[in-house]
Amino acid sequence: MLRDVNAGPQVVVCSTCRHSAEAREDGKGRRGGAVLATALRRVRDADPALAGIGIEEMPCLFACTMHCAVHIRAPGKIGYVLGGFAPDTAAAVAILAYVAAHGQSADGVVPYAQWPAGVKGHFIVRVPPEGSVAT
Length: 135
Fold this sequence. Notes:
By secondary structure, this protein is α+β, with helices and mostly antiparallel strands. The protein has one domain. Helices cover 23% and strands 17% of the residues. It is built from two helices and five strands. The protein has helices at 32-46, 89-104; strands at residues 10-14, 54-58, 70-73, 79-82, 123-127. It has a five-stranded mixed sheet, with helices on one face. It is globular. The model has no long low-confidence stretch (mean pLDDT 94).
């Protein structure tokens, strides 16, 4: 049930997420999460500064009320689940900019002033790293 992946800054995309609040799939029968994962890889691969960010897919993050959900994580850092994105390039750019800032932070806390506008209002939950809690 679990698959090992590389450690480091990552975004885990819910591959089975709805395309939008109204539609499960797009006109080509693709789920929104799968489309968002493709957009994330395209944006990452076009920018050498983002090359170290892992993009993984996982069926269902259990954030079903917020379509196109992602989990942002890095070893020893607070992680975040975000959702409610459109599965497009603009969302991918904002998510990856936040992942990059998260990966460069000491503990996973990115100052609000550094948040890309495209992630504001999309946070669902923060998750402490194993063996820690935030103070």
